[in-house]
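Let us work through a complete example step by step.
Step 1: write down the sequence.
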Amino acid sequence: MLTPVPALLAPLPVTAAIGLSLLVYLAGSALDALLAPGLRRAGAVWLAVAVAGWCGAALAAPAFRPDGPAVKVAALQPDVPLEARWNPGNEESIEDRVWRLSRQGADAGARWIVWPESAVPRVLESDAAFRREVEAFTRTRGVWLLFGSIGLGHAEDEYYNSVYEASPAGLLPWRYDKVHLVPFGEYVPLVGRFAALRALVREVGSFTPGTHVQPLPGPAGPVGVAVCYEVAYPSLYASEVVRGAAVLATITNDGWYGDSAAPRQHLALAILRAAEARRYLVRAANTGISAVIDPYGRVLTRLGVNREGLITAEVRPGADVTPAEAHSGAIRAGVVLAAAGVMILGAWRRRPVR
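Step 2: predict the structure and record it as tokens.
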């Protein structure tokens, strides 16, 4: 992983993650070839290509240009165990913890509070009391609140993994519905085509994927949102940045992974997305790792796994759209073609001579 050394991510706004991966692959293959008799010349050539590509993209990468004043944000990490989340007996204590951390964030001067995915076990659109609590908090504290809840659709069994934003004036009339659902966790592939399969998995994977990608309003400008592992999809943030996202946010619950490598890998993906887009990114994770990342992939502040608390930092809106975001589809296609060309060339050079 290159993310622990942000300087190595310099080409990302031009190459995107897939292009930087190709450069790393070329460099690694070249170093291997340098150790093999008969391949040293080819290895030197490919190493030069990789280094030149990295340097050229790094020099061409645009700098971050702020497009407004700084806004202080607080990302909450309530650290609620998975087994406790949907136990009705724990609802009050979970809510007390989340609201206590929210008040601490507001007391620390944050104008924007970000909750992790499904921070409280309540459904906003069918719970008028919960909506009143949210609006009372944002109004009396003069803050914005980004949070997740189950979104309701038009059909009786239509549910979404949704993100909402509330301002000091009240709940905004827009929401983001998670587009990329987790297979076998939030939906079961092909279940709609087989009645027998629907009966077997009735209690599993009941979410409907969202179809509309649009930033939500926020105190630092429009917010590009990703839920949980959606941060692994560069095209999602690219679509939101092209549509005007000035800052990025991702909310997640990584409690499934415990204190394994997975929460750190998930954070690394968020670092890549921030550097690609040249945007500040706020990450709120229920059990960690919560973080605020700057437009160059540097982690400004973080809170580790299985720790309760909150983090605060200042974020600034960005306006410029990087080549990696503006041309994400073309870059992916170009890298695939380039990788295919390298493999074909290698196979051709290794063909037996008759």
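Step 3: interpret the result. The CA atoms of residues 224 and 240 lie 5 Å apart.
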